[in-house]
UniProtKB/TrEMBL annotation:
PANTHER family, per database record: OROTIDINE 5'-PHOSPHATE DECARBOXYLASE
One annotated Gene Ontology cellular component of this protein: cytosol
EC id: 4.1.1.23
Sites where the protein binds substrate: 13, 35, 62-71, 126, 187, 196, 216-217
Residue ranges of every copy of the Orotidine 5'-phosphate decarboxylase domain listed in the record: 7-232
Organism: Haliovirga abyssi
Protein name in the entry: Orotidine 5'-phosphate decarboxylase
Gene label: pyrF
Subunit structure: Homodimer.
Pfam families (UniProt xref): OMPdecase
Amino acid sequence: MNNVKEKLVFALDVPDLKSAKALIKELAEYVGVFKVGKELFTAVGPEIFKVIKENNGKIFADLKYHDIPNTVASAARVLVRHGVEIFNVHATGGFEMINMTAKAIKEEAEKLGINRPKLLAVTVLTSLNDEDLKSLKINETTSDYVIDLAKLAKSAGADGVVCSPNEVEQIKKELGKEFITLTPGIRPLWSVKGDQKRVMTPAQAVKNGVDYIVVGRPIRNVENRVEAAKKILKEMSE
């Protein structure tokens, strides 16, 4: 992905279709992928996927599936039929859940004669840090736990992981440059950190080898969203 636009994922974290449509039309020229999370998907369902495709956008279904293997694999087959580019599951769902899902999307895509979506595993949410892990009785540092989950995900057939930008360099070193990293927790220098504890600027993230960076509030919550997106693309190119 040499084109920086293809690396930029915009978070459609809005509560209704009207707001989402306006953002998609405004930003389609400057954003490679649109992220559909739980709030928007719960509000409007798969209709949002149609809108994104009508505007020549790519879809990241950020639904973080975590259930028994058969349930997740069945849901993933439906996402293939919707033509999503990327979707995710929780790595803590385990080897069998990830592996069955990887096989299911390959089979479904072959049946339909289309490219399969990229399957990413969520490692540790960027809102968590070492102290949070301790409270969950996980006696590892955040970075070590992320690496362990990434190794599990790769062995099960995932294409990559969702992680903080701080872990990308080590993941690429241990699991290879082709193993995809998608990172939230990206904040330009001119933006506030928000509720995410492990953050990085777009320029730093790209330098570390990140494949996709997710940006929401720094674009969405400003007066001139197009200008904000352009500024981020410029930062990513530096």
